[in-house]
Amino acid sequence: INKGQEITSEILNRIVEKNRHYTTQGKVADYIPELGKANPSKIGIAVVNAQGKVISSGDVSEKFTIQSISKIIALMIAVQENGEENLYKKLGYFGTDQPFNHFGNLDNNGKPLNPMMNAGAIVTTASIQGEGDLGYQKILAMIRYITKNSAINLNEKVYLSEKETGHRNRGMFHILKNSGLIEGTEDKLDNYFKQCSIEVTAVDLAKIGYFFANNGTRFDGDTTYKNIEIARLIQSQMLTAGMYEFSGEYSRTVGLPSKSGVGGGITVSVPHKMGIGVYSPALDEHGNSLAGYQMIVELSKLYDLSIF
Ligand code: GLN
């Protein structure tokens, strides 16, 4: 164990090479047709260390869609605007044993189990105030702020592909609307499709991980959105459900609040310390990046990063 020692790019290079073979064992998501075009051999890892410095290895300039990782940003904004207590009248703090898009991710009263699965995330996004695409614009602006990367934008093709084939999400939206958990038009669902289609890199994800790990302080020290309560809430939700039905086992093997997306990214917060972002689009059976997960396991073990 290198506990307390600095993470270097040499170490990250070694981790990438050692885990590269996993890229051939997973499968790129193709239920959203446009995602199926990703190159499964891509692999990269980025760390923003406690000093806010970026260290990386592999395909860290490669762009991919953020997908479900956007759910933590939407949650942050929905809590800022509505307060945690009000928002969680419509959501639970539960984990799940079902896949991310399963209709069983609702409790006995029809409330989504948590904001990390699709059902809860659709409610979260719909709770962000404003007509039309304003909710989406707020999410995009927050991601640009956290990463200090104003070039971040929507991947139009992925967005249209999601919108066209997102029948499960559309079905869930209407069930939730029927239960009175969502107000407003299908624009609210469209904002969900759009937030999932925002393009980022592994470096951007590491900066997002750093932001929540450090109570809302940006990697360059900016404290505009510093908020300990919101950072605690979001990291706890990442830990219990951020890796979907794999979250329990992931807590055992990695022990860090993390959020994955079917685009192949995972963002990790090492509380009070740093952020990690990985990318590799070949996924395991839960919809988590296979090589990405293996790299995080290794880094966590090497530096004893688990919170437990
Ligand atoms: N846009 C994807 C969906 O709603 C996000 C899912 C994910 O990343 N797990 O199906």
UniProtKB/TrEMBL annotation:
Catalytic activity: L-glutamine + H2O = L-glutamate + NH4(+)
Listed GO biological process terms: glutamate biosynthetic process; L-glutamine catabolic process
EC number assigned by the record: 3.5.1.2
Alphabetized UniProt keyword annotations: Acetylation, Hydrolase, Signal
Annotated substrate binding sites: S68, N118, E162, N169, Y192, Y244, V262
Family: Belongs to the glutaminase family.
Protein's name in the database: Glutaminase
Taxonomic classification: Bacteria, Pseudomonadati, Bacteroidota, Flavobacteriia, Flavobacteriales
Gene designation per UniProt: glsA
